[in-house]
Write a structure and sequence with these properties.
The complex is a heterotrimer of chains A (348), B (538) and C (314). With 348 residues, chain A is of the alpha/beta class. Chain A is built from 13 helices and 11 strands. In chain A, strands 1, 2, 3, 4, 5, 6, 7, 8, 9, 10 and 11 form an 11-stranded mixed β-sheet that branches. The longest helix of chain A has 19 residues. Chain B contains 23 helices and no strands. Chain C is of the alpha+beta class and 314 residues long. In chain C, a hairpin with a 2-residue loop joins β11 and β12. Helix content of chain C is 27%, strand content 35%. Chain C has a 6-stranded mixed β-sheet with strand order 6-7-8-3-9-10, sandwiched between helices. Chain C has a 4-stranded antiparallel β-sheet with strand order 2-1-4-5, with helices on one face. In chain C, α3 runs parallel beside α5 and α4 crosses α5. Chain C contains 9 helices and 17 strands. The chains are: A alpha/beta (348), B mainly alpha (538), C alpha+beta (314). Chains A and B meet through α1, β2, α3, α8 and α13 of A and α1, α3, α11 and α15 of B.
Chain lengths: 348, 538, 314
């Protein structure tokens, strides 16, 4: 203790000597500015955010800090000195890590009652579900005029050799979700063999979703030469919406038997000085305006029931009756071991 | 005699500045890392983990191969530069140096530009990226200067008559080189090789950006453990392994350095005649093409907006874009970088300058101690330093994690050794008779310092400032740990841009890289001018 | 026999050797003598194969070696500052050429070291040797492979004067024992006259004079050679300059009257400068006890038989 106090004194001296003041990033003075810490894939319409500010007087500043996993870890590392007030983007695969780190303040949003109960994974309401989606293998329709392979087992068939791109589960959240899906499907003792078969079938591993989809996938906006990629159930509508001119049918499709559920949560960061405003922001994220905006912005589905989907989603998004799921507690206990095993098998 | 070394009054008090700085921001964080790494079975677990063993093995062999390749590429150029005088020799010399001072992220993005899709070599050599091929190429690119400059200097001091003597005794040109010159420059070669090995062993930015998912050095693995697994203990254990390896490396390098015997310095270079011209062109042509192409491609791709040339990517740097990977305008990254670099330079000059002043005048033991104290951070990897800050400076009373100042402080720690290394020789080279003359003319000790030492050392201080500034601008490893997402620096912005898809992100990465490259090159060119100017000034 | 036939060496626009021809017989020691810049070293390097002649030919025993690389010529070469390999022992230095030819090393090295008087020095490093010892190692190294032509570039040039004078005699004896053809470059006329069988004086890349040492000494070809040989007494003459060697002039009862203007001690004697009545000034060596003082009136005798007349060089 004595040493620390001495060090602190010395430090103070040094700072004075160096002529550096303390942090100077205070607010503007009038009105509160909330910082929403999130991952790189977060997006929201300007109008929607402006509507929130107009209504509540709260400005929102968005701080993107990497891939979903990295963004969460950064927030945990900075728990004592939070990067912002609200965190968006912790998913079910990392949920227990966030909860164990005691990252969030409890908040039960009134709108939670409108949310499908299967998305509410934390009974204590430290995190609030905001959106969900499914991670599935997508295929390039032009490669499969007679229909694509259907199951995980099909993907390991020699006819699909050199066709699949996946993401590294250590560095990519869809990659991790997909790995967990294979574990849910094959069981704790079966998934390794399937992945070994994939390696023998020349599977390609990308660092992140963007690299996998845009650089290696051959369908839609992809510029690569592989017709199968791990992506989202909502990727086909995106291919329609962003194409010019818009085609009648999506150029890509989804293997629904490979879909695994991904739920994204938001939470109020411990240590915020604007807890009330943060609660308002969470509530706003469950409001119909925000929920209806998400599909077109982030290509995810609303968790609140009764939200109308854009017509392209109705027309082109795959309907996944029973996505694969794993218990978050199970995930938390085994995640790092699974990733290590996967790395050993696939990258070793 | 003690009188020959005038002391500043209160120099003991001054010494507390570097001591406190290095103690707080280096010893304390690194000690924390070591303590964390040695807690429990951390190191043993790391050593026992097959995957981490592979990481260590890869780190080792890629460094060894990089070193060998660097020597193979650099040696012919070094020979040509040492032996021949020709028009443009100074330009070639400068061009060889440029890559070494470029930020790692710029070099990495240059290789992405060359080898990536739509890059000029993306077709035939695209398979190298990501992977070992791209890593090795970038490592060679980076370090050619270290070997070429060191060996060319040593070779320039070998009497060319020795090779002629060997030839007259029946040795062919190549045999004469191998039997006579090579053994004579071997200490210099080994010293340069050990430096290259150290640099590539602790390589971070290049491997992170070019390695792909399969390839990681220990430094990259430390980052992954923190960023993706949040496993600080494994990260710390890896850092301990890293630290041990680096210290071993430094000891070997130090031994070799001590064995480099300076020989008679005289420029043995002569004009090439006849077939020698063709040989010279055959050596320097490809070497220069290798050095210049990546930079040229970066610059070209920063203005290649598809179907024509334009400044779209540069303009995009000034705007904050929805869906961009940076939620602040990239312009802010430039502002941050310049501000941090200015502060880091000031701190490095203060700390390094005081250390240099004390080291230059104090007795040998004190000076060696101070030297060591400030030099050690140089050998420590920036990633370890970043991790140390993360671990050590986040609880009261040293709760500084939100403080943006940590970034320039880390930069200053990395830059201070260079300041010391540049300023000490300048102070030591001042003829003591000048001080004596001033004293005889009635100047007090302080006046002597002000009237003699300060003006004479000011060139060196300016050079040191330029170096510190360039180092801070390009620093990546520690910054990645310390810069908060709302306050990115230029290298961080480039890293984020490269991690995102689409031509706009790639274009912005290229534009930002070009800007960083230009600023660095300008600073270094300024330094070279100052250096050239100081030769023969006294 | 070495034949140098109209050899020219150029460095860019600068002509270092402008068409030199000469012949060196087996067993003969030829000295290339000239001031720095006269082209003597360039000519030697051309013979060694270290410079490529722009014109002319170099033949050894009738074989044209002009374009042959150095290491195939098999000529021995001794450098001014010896160029001993600092990282190799004396034995390794001497054995280097043998090793390059794949010949047995040990016995021959011992033999050659004995020849130059350095028995037992084999394991020493060059840096531990004195200048004279280094010089002998350099010679041993050059002759060890059994070369038939030995090229020496100022082999004594980096030694101090007393050592040089002592070694000059030794070197001459060793060269004659070897019985090889020798081209010896020097700017020191005393060394050249002492060692050489024949002297070739070079000036601006051309041969100014070639001949035996007595021929060159007694009959310098022109003013340049005379001055370069160090003759102090060059008197005006209707056909050029009258060269009066030191041994052709003395003080005595006979001869031209004059006044002593200076007396300089030269170690082995005195040099008395006399202003002869009527203009010319002469330097006269004096070894006797009776040394005149400045201002004394003396008579200077010149032995006309030993003088020569040379053309003025402009």
């Amino acid at each position: 203790m004595k040493v620390k106090r001495w060090l602190a004194g010395a430090l103070a001296l040094l700072l004075v000597a160096a002529g550096c003041g303390d942090d100077d990033d205070g607010g503007d003075g009038d009105g509160v500015t909330l910082r929403l810490v999130t991952h790189d894939s977060f997006a929201v319409s300007d109008e929607v955010l402006e509507a929130f500010t107009a209504e509540s007087g709260i400005a929102v500043e968005i701080v993107a800090s990497g891939d979903a996993g990295a963004a969460l870890n950064l927030s945990i590392l900075n728990r004592e000195n939070p990067l912002g007030d609200v965190f968006f983007g912790v998913d079910n695969t990392f949920l227990t890590r966030a909860l164990d780190a005691d990252l969030f303040v409890r908040h039960r949003s009134p709108a939670i009652d409108d949310v499908d109960p299967r998305f509410v994974l934390d009974d204590e309401h430290r995190v609030t579900p905001i959106d969900h989606g499914e991670v599935c293998v997508n295929f390039d329709r032009s490669t499969y005029p007679d229909g694509p392979p259907a199951t995980f087992e099909d993907l390991a068939d020699p006819t699909e050799r050199g066709r699949l791109v996946v993401q590294n589960p250590a560095t990519s959240s869809p990659g991790l979700a997909f790995l967990l899906g294979t574990i849910a499907h094959f069981g704790e003792d079966g998934w390794q063999d399937w992945w070994r078969a994939l390696v023998a079938n020349d599977v390609l591993v990308a660092t992140g979703w963007e690299e996998a989809y845009y650089q290696h996938f051959s369908g839609g906006s992809g510029e690569g030469d592989r017709p199968l990629v791990v992506s989202y159930a909502t990727s086909p509508p995106a291919e329609v919406i962003f194409a010019e001119p818009q085609p009648d049918d999506a150029p890509t499709g989804v293997l629904v038997d490979t879909c695994v559920e991904q739920i994204e949560f938001a939470g109020i960061l411990q240590g915020t000085e604007h807890e009330d405003e943060a609660r308002q922001l969470i509530d706003f994220m469950l409001s119909p305006v925000f929920q209806a905006d998400m599909p077109m912005q982030m290509f995810v589905l609303p968790v609140v029931e009764g939200i109308d989907l854009p017509e392209e989603f109705v027309a082109h998004a795959a309907v996944v009756p029973e996505p694969l799921r794993l218990d978050p507690a199970d995930i938390d206990v085994n995640r790092d071991r699974w990733i290590d095993e996967w790395t050993e098998i696939v990258l070793g | 005699m003690d009188r020959d070394r005038p002391r500043l009054s209160g120099s003991g008090l001054l010494a507390t500045v570097p001591l406190a700085f290095v103690g707080l921001f280096f010893v304390w964080p690194v000690a924390t890392v070591i303590a964390e790494g040695l807690t429990g079975a951390g190191v043993l677990e790391v050593l026992g983990d097959r995957r981490l063993q592979r990481v260590a093995w890869f780190t080792l062999w890629q460094a060894a191969v990089s070193t060998v390749l660097t020597i193979a590429v650099a040696l012919p150029g070094a020979w040509a530069l040492a032996r021949f005088r020709f028009r443009g020799r100074a330009v070639v010399w400068a061009l060889i140096t440029v890559p070494f001072v470029l930020p790692t992220v710029v070099v990495a993005s240059a290789f992405v530009a060359v080898l990536g899709p739509r890059g000029p070599l993306g077709g035939p050599l695209g398979g190298l990226l990501p992977g070992v091929g791209a890593i090795l190429a970038a490592h060679v690119y980076f370090n050619v200067a270290v070997v070429a400059r060191t060996v060319a200097n040593a070779l320039g001091q070998v009497d060319p008559q020795l090779e002629e003597a060997a030839r007259s005794l029946g040795a062919s040109r190549w045999t004469a080189f191998r039997e006579v010159s090579l053994p004579l420059v071997r200490p210099a070669l080994v010293a340069a090789a050990s430096i290259v090995f150290l640099f590539t062993f602790t390589s971070f930015g290049v491997v992170l950006l070019l390695g792909g998912p399969r390839r990681a050095t220990i430094d990259v693995e430390i980052w992954r453990q923190v960023a993706y697994f949040l496993d600080l203990r494994t990260a710390a254990a890896l850092a301990v392994v890293q630290l041990v390896a680096v210290v071993a490396c430094l000891v070997v390098a130090g031994r070799m350095q001590a064995r480099v015997v300076p020989r008679r310095a005289r420029d043995a270079a002569r004009r090439p005649v006849g077939a020698e011209r063709a040989v010279l062109a055959a050596i320097l042509g490809p070497t220069l093409a290798f050095l210049v192409t990546p930079l040229a491609v970066v610059a070209y791709r920063s203005v290649d907006v598809g179907g024509g040339l334009g400044l779209t990517f540069y303009r995009a740097l000034g705007t904050s874009r929805r869906g961009s990977s940076l939620f602040v305008p990239p312009e802010a990254a430039i502002r941050n970088s310049v501000t941090y670099a200015a502060i880091a330079t000031a701190i490095a000059l203060l700390v390094g300058g005081i250390t240099a002043g004390l080291a230059a005048y104090r007795d040998r033991r004190t000076s060696r101690l101070l030297d060591l104290l400030v030099m050690v951070p140089l050998g420590t990897s920036a990633v370890t330093l970043g991790l140390g800050f993360l671990l050590a400076l986040d609880e009261p009373p040293l709760d500084l994690r939100t403080w943006w100042g940590l970034v320039p402080i880390a930069h200053a720690l990395i830059a201070a050794p260079f300041v010391v290394r540049i300023v000490v020789p300048a102070l030591r080279s001042i003829d003591p008779r000048l001080r004596e003359a001033a004293a005889v003319l009635g100047a007090s000790p302080v006046r002597v310092r002000l009237a003699v030492d300060v003006p004479l050392a000011s060139r060196a201080v300016l050079v040191a400032a330029g170096f510190a500034f360039a180092i801070s601008l390009g620093e990546f490893g520690a910054t990645l740990f310390l810069a908060r997402p709302d306050n990115p620096t230029m290298p961080i912005a480039i890293f984020r841009f490269l991690g995102q898809p689409g031509p706009l992100n790639l274009g912005q990465a290229m534009a930002m890289s070009t800007l960083l490259m230009l600023v660095t090159a300008t600073v270094i060119a300024g330094i070279e001018r100052f250096r050239a100017g100081s030769v023969g000034a006294f | 026999m070495l034949e140098v036939d109209g050899v020219e060496v150029r460095f860019g626009d600068h002509v270092a050797v402008a068409g030199v021809s000469m012949v060196v017989e087996r067993g003969e020691v030829v000295c290339l003598l000239g001031p720095s810049g006269s082209g003597k070293t360039s000519l030697l390097r051309a013979v060694a194969g270290l410079e490529t002649p722009a014109a002319g030919a170099i033949r050894w025993d009738g074989r044209d070696v002009t374009r042959e690389p150095t290491h195939r010529r098999g000529f021995g070469l001794v450098f001014q500052d010896f160029a001993l390999f600092p990282h190799r022992s004396v034995a390794a230095n001497v054995g280097f050429g043998l090793r390059m030819r794949g010949e047995p090393v040990e016995e021959r090295v011992a033999e050659v070291l004995a020849l130059v008087g350095l028995e037992g020095y084999g394991s020493r490093m060059p840096s531990t040797l004195s200048g004279g010892e280094q010089q002998r190692v350099a010679l041993a190294r050059a002759v060890a492979p059994g070369c038939e032509l030995l090229l020496m570039d100022e082999p004594l040039g980096s030694l101090d004067r007393p050592l040089r004078e002592r070694l000059t005699g030794e070197l001459r004896a060793m060269l004659h024992d070897l019985g090889v053809a020798v081209v010896h470059v020097t700017h020191d006329q005393q060394e050249a006259l002492a060692i050489a069988d024949r002297v070739v004086v070079l000036r601006d890349g051309r041969v100014a004079q070639a001949g035996t040492p007595p021929e060159v000494w007694r009959r310098p070809a022109d003013e340049f050679v005379a001055r370069f040989l160090g003759f102090a007494n060059l008197l005006p003459h209707p056909d050029g300059l009258l060269v009066v060697p030191p041994d052709a002039v003395s003080l005595g009862p006979e001869g031209e009257p004059g006044t002593v203007t200076a007396v300089t001690f030269r170690g082995t004697g005195f040099a008395v400068t006399v202003a002869v009545d009527g203009g010319a000034s002469l330097e006269v060596p004096v070894r006797s006890e009776a040394i005149p003082a400045p201002g004394d009136r003396v008579r200077v005798a010149i032995e006309a038989r030993l003088t020569s007349v040379v053309p003025v060089v402009r």
